Amino acid sequence: MIAYGAGTAAIEVVPTGFALGAEIRGIDARKPVPPETAKTLREAWKQHLVLLFRGQTGLTDQQLITFTQVFGPLQAAPNSDVTAGFGSFADVPPEVAVISNIKVDGRPIGALGAGEADWHTDMSFIEEPPAGSCLYAIEVPASGGNTSFINMHRALDTLDEEMADAVNGVQCVHDLSLTSTGSRRQGVAEVADVRETPGARHPVLRTHPDTKRKALFLGRRRNAWLVGFEVEDSERLLDCLWAHATDEAHVWEHRWREGDIVLWDNRAVMHRRDAFDPATRRLMHRTQVKGGRPR
Ligand code: OGA
Ligand code: MN
Question: What is the pTM of this model?
Fold first, then answer.
């Protein structure tokens, strides 16, 4: 644990002890973050890739937006265009995505329902996916719905050299037709051949723009294709890469409490979510930090 700052402004960075993630203590996200503290938070984010802030109950959307801006300018929530069907109809600012299984008058107020969400990187199917996502827990069920994270720097560092060489300079297609829970986005045809998967193409090996560290970038498994490969070869190699990346040694699992804010770095992290009892309520608001084209 490292304590920063003097007197009243001290914050603590407490690593999870797993492959990534740290809890930050001493922050009240409702209040403006002083510039020195903001710098410390950005440094901690670079180092730990996922930051957890507990006890932030009662935040307004505007306070969540202002807090997220400590980490960069925001990107609009995926409620339109190619991502239509993400599911929100709740009355929230354009920066906020609602992640929830709650229905009002039979209509979901948010995305992802109560099912399992497979390993993915948020919005990796667009040309410039968000650098970060910030998920704020407003209501959580007593059990289920845990969210896990993978350190994709670690996944690459421990990948065998032959496999790393095999994907050096290779691009992968990131499917936009399905959400992480496997439901098809509005107006997008079913993929019959992965060579025709709609979605952005990104390098499998990417370099983090801030730290210059390399990371494995897989995005989402369904309908993925290593561009230019025979489908069979692409499938075999992708299966190997995914089996390695999702090894428990690279994972930290978070069990939510109301008032948690969790911020992750999409450039070096994948995440998944457990299913939970659909008869219980789970309500999260998410903001996105703007990102650039993966390189
Ligand atoms: C997300 C997501 C996981 C969760 O908001 O991008 O994958 O725990 N959510 O709901
Ligand atoms: Mn996600």
Answer: 0.95
* Nearest ligand, CA 141: 1
Helix (H) or strand (E) holding 117: strand 117-120
Q: What is the pLDDT of residues 92-141, one digit of tens each?
A: 999 999 999 999 988 889 999 999 999 999 999 999 999 999 999 999 99
Q: Is the CB–ligand 1 distance for residue 41 below 6 Å?
A: no
- Which among 246, 287, 294 has a CA at the least distance from the CA of 62? 287
From ligand 2's centre to the CA of 122, what distance in Å?
5
Local structure of 199: helix, strand or coil: coil
Strand partners for 193: none
Say how far apart CA 199 and CA 145 lie, in whole Å.
28
Q: Is the CB of 123 under 6 A from ligand 1?
A: no
Q: 287: buried, middle or exposed (CB in 10 Å: 19+, 13-18, 0-12)?
A: buried
Q: Please tell me if the CB atom of residue 288 comes closer than 6 angstroms to any atom of ligand 1.
A: no
Whether residue 117 has its Cβ less than 6 Å from ligand 1: yes
Picking from 92, 131, 134, 122, the residue whose alpha carbon sits closest to that of residue 110 is: 92
**Measured from the CB, is residue 101 less than 6 Å from ligand 1?**
no
Closest listed residue to residue 180, CA positions, set 286, 60, 259: 286
CA of 98 to the centre of ligand 1 (A): 10
Report helix, strand and coil shares of the chain as percent, to nearest 5. 20, 30, 50
Is residue 186 packed enough to be buried (19+ CB in 10 Å), middle (13-18) or exposed (0-12)? Answer: exposed
For the CA atoms of 247, 251, 255, 259, the dihedral, rounded to the nearest 10 degrees, stands at -150
CA of 32 to the centre of ligand 1 (A): 26
